[in-house]
Design a protein that fits this description.
- With about 250 residues, this protein is an alpha+beta fold.
- It is about 25% helix and about 40% strand.
- The chain has a single domain, classed as Beta Barrel (Lipocalin), CATH 2.40.128.
- Strands 1, 2, 3, 4, 5, 6, 7, 8, 9, 10, 11 and 12 form a twelve-stranded antiparallel β-sheet that branches.
- Strand 2 and strand 3 form a beta hairpin.
Length: about 250
């Protein structure tokens, strides 16, 4: 009996060791650091300079919207934190004194990238199903009132109430945000807990993944900037083109 027990323990140790080795050398992933305020260089500016409309344009590597989720690998013996991000993000917000309004942020989830191509391909047709539901979107439904006009370089914390759309489902949410104005740009960082069932999401599966938590976190790090003169000219051309197309369609 003692010999049998010794053999069983030895087998368990071997299996566990093999599982860990397989995870470390084959499946181990390096998760991205959590979103946090960056201490960018500041530019002296009067408080009134903060007022105005700011935007986020896609393709800026400093901006991202992404996910953070726990995967259980190799018969649930080891856990792995998976992260994926996209810089294909657009956004807008307006600041007037201590009031922040007209906030909208939209991310194209089809361009989410992690350190595992298999994971990226999987969530396009499972889980998030980004090929079917390509957008995640947040729209502020109540203006944010700040305690005071932030000083240049000051980091503040506030809460934003709005509608969040994911996987084709829209839910009211409250997200805690950190913000920092460096004299030219407004940096915004936040994390929103997501329960998959709330958005009709079934956790994706894969041969090497035993299970995925039923919840995740949506992370964002965005730098809002005031439009340049070139941006305003481009926007006018886009509006004119859209109006012309609409008129042409009506005349058919």
């Amino acid at each position: 009996m003692r010999r049998l027990l010794t053999v069983v323990i030895a087998l368990v140790v071997v299996v566990a060791g093999s599982a860990f080795a397989a995870w470390y050398f084959v499946f181990k992933t390096d998760s991205a650091p959590k979103a946090k305020i960056k201490q960018t260089a500041t530019v002296a500016a009067p408080g009134t300079a903060l007022d105005g409309t700011y935007t986020v344009k896609p393709g800026n590597a400093s901006n991202f919207v992404g996910y953070r989720v726990t995967e259980k690998l190799v018969a649930s013996i080891v856990e792995n934190t998976a992260t994926g991000r996209t810089d294909n993000v657009t956004g807008t917000l307006t600041i007037s004194g201590t009031t922040v309004s007209n906030v909208t942020v939209t991310a194209d989830l089809r361009s989410l990238r992690s350190d595992q191509g298999g994971r990226d391909g999987s969530i396009q047709n499972e889980g998030l199903e980004s090929n079917r539901f390509p957008q995640a979107k947040f729209v502020l439904t109540q203006p944010i009132t700040l305690a005071a006009v932030p000083a240049v370089g000051e980091t503040i914390t506030t809460r934003a109430t709005g509608d969040f759309t994911l996987h084709g489902v829209t839910k009211p949410v409250v997200i805690t945000l950190e913000g920092r104005w460096d004299g030219t740009r407004v940096q915004v960082v936040g994390t929103l807990p997501i329960v998959f069932g709330d958005y009709n999401i079934e956790a994706p599966t894969a041969p090497v993944v035993a299970s995925v938590d039923d919840h995740a976190a949506m992370e964002l790090q965005l730098f809002f900037e005031k439009p340049t003169a070139d941006d305003r000219v481009t926007r006018r051309h886009e509006v004119r083109g859209s109006s012309a197309a609409h008129v042409a369609g009506l005349s058919r």
